[in-house]
Structures are given as structure tokens and as C-alpha cells.
TrEMBL record:
The name this protein goes by in its record: Predicted arabinose efflux permease, MFS family
CDD domains found in the cross-reference section: MFS_MefA_like
Keyword field: Cell membrane, Membrane, Transmembrane, Transmembrane helix, Transport
Principal cellular location given in the protein's record: membrane
Keyword Plastid in record: no
Pfam families given in the database record: MFS_3
Membrane topology field: Multi-pass membrane protein
Organism: Falsiroseomonas stagni DSM 19981
Length: 388
């Protein structure tokens, strides 16, 4: 399927650039401020658009040709990267500018579920959605290896301008692939009432059997699991004594485990695995976040990140898949928009972790967050257990 490959390439190039930028911005902010809270805040502002606009983007995506929306999103990200290149040429980009760039890029990220991943589902169909998502997660997590490693190496050797220049090149490649997509989505002709439809989206999703549990686990993962990733540069530099290239290599270990986990799921992912893999992946990620934070050295920390990444791959592969197969075709884009809102609630987790890290230190705060995630899963068992 040529269009599947093109959409997959768009996601791959964007993902490499995204993880590169997140690592480089985190290291730059920590170098300037030495504040774990401000480091976590960079991811927080990148997630903020998901919570603010995720459901609205899901509704709006039904009213436009998704191919055109995807091209516009990539162009927006390319302009942000070009701005960071220029700012780096003029000197050290200030923290506020890095935060603004992260926020604008976050708007593009919030559109990924209702635009690009919805197009993937339209092309491959419901029966092959899990395999398609596995391959998409493989690419995403390969980029979590390549992005931080490339970003850390370029930052150490050439400075931020070279890293952001590579990001710009990756967005241009993504744009070229997006322009070659031939798939045309169905444009909804409903009367224009985005606010009303956004409000109704939540009721539609919650009425669907099994969806309440999917959204609860999504919120737990993004509140208590994923924020741990933002502390990898802080723990790597501040606790383990690594330089930018070492921090980049350590951060990529999460991606190594996720790549392996996604490859296993792409090879074999029967339907009765979907929900256990989803929930188990969340639990494993939270548990290994605690293990990483308490690791006594670089090697055990890296191994904990590998296992953590494998859990994250299981969660990420099944997240959009479960939503896609559970919802009627005409409501999938809106449901994926609601899913983006639940992901966006993770900004509260990053805020929580950042404040705790400033108070009790990054390792202790990260370990505590992982324990909180496992406790939250245990307390919500009645809602996410398999439906009767």
C-alpha cells in the first residue's frame, strides 16, 4: 500500500524530529536554569494543546480533507524548526522562546490521532489496524532511539543550531512524503457547530462499552508514567554525571525497549491480547520508572529504561487500536480527539513531577510517581477490567 508507506514515513520523520527537539530543549533548559521543574515544564507546554484542543481537533478533522490538514501540520512544524535555527544562530535561545516553540509543536502533535492515525485506519481497515499501529509504534520508538542520540551528539559536537537544522530537514522530508499521499478521506457535511460537537464527543465515547476503562488507563499512564521520561536528562546529568552525548544515549534506551516490544506485537498481536497488553504495558512502565529512578548506576538505569520502553510500546500500540475498533466508523475521529484530550491531561503529571523534583529531588520524585501510578491502577480496577 503506497499511501500507508507514505503516511508511515511522515510519522517517522516527524517523530525523529520531535524526540530530538525534546531532548535538546530539555538539556538546554537544564543548562540555563538547573531547575527540574522548568525541564518538566517544556514537556508540559508541549502537551497543553492536547488537553485544550484535542477534542476540537477531532471534530474539525471530519470537516476537512485530512491530507490537506496533514500537509499544513508539517509546514507549521517546519516553520517552528526554522525559527529555532535562526534563534540559535543569534545566540542562546531563551527559555521562554523554547517553551513557545514546544507549545506550537504541541498543537501539531495534538492533531496526530484524529488526522494521521485516522488516515492509517481508513487505508488498512479495522482488521489490520493493530498490525498497522504496531508498525507505526515501531517507527515511533525507533525514532526515540535515533532522535535523542542524534540530538545529544549534535548538541555536544556542534551546538543547538546543528540539532535544530537536522530537525528542519526531517520536517521537509515529511512534507515531501505528505504531498505524495493520494488517499482522500470522507468530509463530514454536518452543520458547522464545532463547540456543540466537541461537547457531544465525550458523551458518545463514554457510552461505548469498554471505552471508559480505555480512557482511565490512558489518563493514569499520562499522569503517572510518561512524565518520568522528562526526568531522564535531569537524572542522567545531575545524578549519573553524564554529558549531553551520554544523556542522549541514556534517553534512547527507552526507545530501544519500545522498538523491541513493538516488533513483537507487529509479528503477533491476536485480538484477545489487546486489552491485557494495554493495561500491562501501563503497569510495567510505571514500575520500571521507579526502578530507573532508584538505579545505582548507568547500566542498571539503562536496563530499566529498556524494560520501561517495552511496556510503553504495548500501551501505545493498543491505545489507538482499542479506540478505533470500539467506535462506529463515523465517530472514530471524534473519539480519537477525546483520546488526545486524555493524553493532554498528562500535563498535570509533568507539573506534579516537576514540583516534587524541585522539592525532594528528581530521583525520589520519579520513583514516587511510578508507585502512584501502580496504586492508581489498583484503585480503578473495577472500571478497566475486561467488560462482561
Amino acid at each position: 500500500m503506497p499511501d500507508f508507506r507514505r503516511i508511515w514515513l511522515v510519522g517517522t520523520f516527524i517523530s525523529i524530529a520531535r524526540w530530538l527537539e525534546m531532548l535538546v530543549i530539555a538539556v538546554m533548559v537544564y543548562d540555563q536554569t538547573k531547575s527540574p521543574f522548568l525541564v518538566a515544564s517544556m514537556t508540559l507546554v508541549r502537551l497543553l494543546p492536547m488537553g485544550l484542543f484535542g477534542a476540537t481537533l477531532g471534530v474539525a478533522a471530519d470537516r476537512v480533507q485530512r491530507r490537506h490538514a496533514l500537509v499544513a501540520v508539517v509546514c507549521c512544524q517546519a516553520m517552528v524548526a526554522a525559527g529555532l535555527v535562526v534563534a540559535s544562530l543569534l545566540g542562546q535561545p531563551p527559555v521562554w522562546l523554547l517553551g513557545l516553540a514546544a507549545f506550537i509543536s504541541g498543537i501539531a502533535w495534538a492533531s496526530d490521532n484524529p488526522v494521521r492515525r485516522m488516515m492509517l485506519g481508513e487505508i488498512v481497515g479495522t482488521t489490520r489496524m493493530a498490525s498497522a499501529m504496531s508498525l507505526d509504534v515501531v517507527a515511533n520508538n525507533a525514532s526515540r532511539v535515533a532522535g535523542p542520540a542524534l540530538g545529544g551528539a549534535l548538541l555536544a559536537a556542534q551546538g543547538p543550531m546543528a540539532a535544530f537544522l537536522l530537525s528542519l530537514v526531517l520536517y521537509l522530508l515529511a512534507g515531501a512524503a505528505a504531498l505524495r499521499i493520494r488517499h482522500r478521506s470522507t468530509v463530514t457535511q454536518r452543520p458547522l457547530s464545532v463547540i456543540r460537537d466537541t461537547r457531544e464527543s465525550f458523551a458518545l465515547v463514554l457510552r461505548q462499552p469498554g471505552m471508559r476503562g480505555v480512557l482511565i488507563v490512558t489518563i493514569i499512564y499520562n499522569l503517572f508514567g510518561w512524565p518520568a521520561n522528562s526526568m531522564v536528562p535531569v537524572i542522567g546529568a545531575g545524578t549519573l554525571g553524564l554529558g549531553p552525548d551520554g544523556v542522549g544515549l541514556l534517553a534512547s534506551m527507552d526507545g530501544v525497549g519500545a522498538f523491541i516490544g513493538a516488533m513483537v506485537l507487529a509479528a503477533r498481536a491476536p485480538a484477545h491480547w489487546y486489552r491485557p497488553v494495554y493495561i500491562g504495558g501501563c503497569a510495567l512502565y510505571c514500575g520500571m520508572a521507579t526502578a530507573f529512578a532508584l538505579a545505582p548506576g548507568v547500566v542498571p538505569a539503562g536496563l530499566a529504561l529498556v524494560v520501561m520502553g517495552a511496556g510503553g510500546a504495548g500501551f501505545a500500540t493498543m491505545q489507538a487500536t482499542l479506540v478505533y475498533i470500539a467506535m462506529p466508523a463515523e465517530e472514530r475521529s471524534r473519539a480519537l480527539g477525546v483520546l488526545s484530550v486524555c493524553v493532554g491531561l498528562g500535563l498535570l503529571g509533568f507539573l506534579h513531577l516537576g514540583l516534587m523534583a524541585d522539592w525532594i529531588g528528581a530521583p525520589a520524585a520519579t520513583a514516587l510517581m511510578g508507585v502512584e501510578g501502580l496504586l492508581a491502577l489498583a484503585l480503578t480496577w473495577r472500571w478497566w477490567r475486561a467488560p462482561r
